[in-house]
Amino acid sequence: xxxxxxxxxxxxxVRRELTSGRDRVGKSYLDDIRRFExxxxxxxxxxxxCWRERGDRDxxxxxxxxxxxxxxxxxxxxxxxxxxxxxxxxxxxxxxxQALNRFEPERGFRFSTYAKWWxxxxxxxxxxxxxxxxxxxxxxxxxxxxxxxRSAKRKISALxxxxxxxxxxxxxxxxxxxxxxDVVDMNRRxxxxxxxxxxxxxxxxxxxxxxxxxxxxxxxxxxxxxxxxRDYQRQALVGAIDVLNDRERRIFEARLLAxxxxxxxxxxxxxxxxxxxxxxxETRAFTKVRKAAKKYAAQAHLVMPSAV
Length: 308
Hints:
This protein is mainly α and about 300 residues long. It has three domains: about 5-130, Four Helix Bundle (Hemerythrin (Met), subunit A); about 140-210; about 220-300, Winged helix-like DNA-binding domain superfamily/Winged helix DNA-binding domain (Arc Repressor Mutant, subunit A), CATH 1.10.10.10. The chain has helices at about 5-10, 15-20, 25-35, 40-55, 55-65, 70-75, 85-100, 110-130, 140-155, 165-175, 180-190, 220-240, 245-255, 265-270, 275-300, and strands at about 200, 205-210. A hairpin with a 2-residue loop joins strand 1 (about 200) and strand 2 (about 205-210). Helix 6 packs across helix 7 (about 85-100) and helix 14 crosses helix 15 (about 275-300).
């Protein structure tokens, strides 16, 4: 059986220790986990080797339970995010199990030194998942900004709610090596979600936020007009291209209408002329098409863009 499979199998054995924090986080839970003795370096290394080399579940149990206090301590440091401490402790315990699965005692590090990174990562992932209905912190830089922004704001005494001042934004962006817009966006996300049914008062009368939200998307009428304009432009272009002869049309389409324009050298080889000759034909064809398109547009009562 693989080590990973053994960790999964181990979970029922230590379920009480790892999940009891989910239901109670008070003194009783902390007292419970204090009963597990702290390990000396030699004890820790021997237990880790027994688990890694022989899959000894008793050794893994002792190694994990002796570090439950570490997971609880780290979870407590994230209380300021307003999420249930019991859930954060449980997530920290999951990180502790992940650390056990990947710990390499032969490298000479203490298990606590290695495990704290996995515990912290697991708790931070939980906070990011739970903070907003909108997914945030999708990149390493965004995650770092999310967890560093509060301390950065405290450092410059930016304690007021709402958007930051431009000078505050610039200072934080420089300190954290991110863009000003990154700071603005993340600061607004830190405020949490707002219900569109949130009560507001206008002239003393109760109302809801949704009644003041403006839809910035184009109206159906504007979309129809835009589509009609595109159709006219397309018809004008198709009609204008008909004024070209076969060679001009081939070069015009290859150079100006293709997703990846054909190189002058390739067209010169195809028509057995020089690159300069191809460029001249392209310029002449463009002039003819633009003139014909303007004429078509005038007949259709549509002023075509100059780019056509």
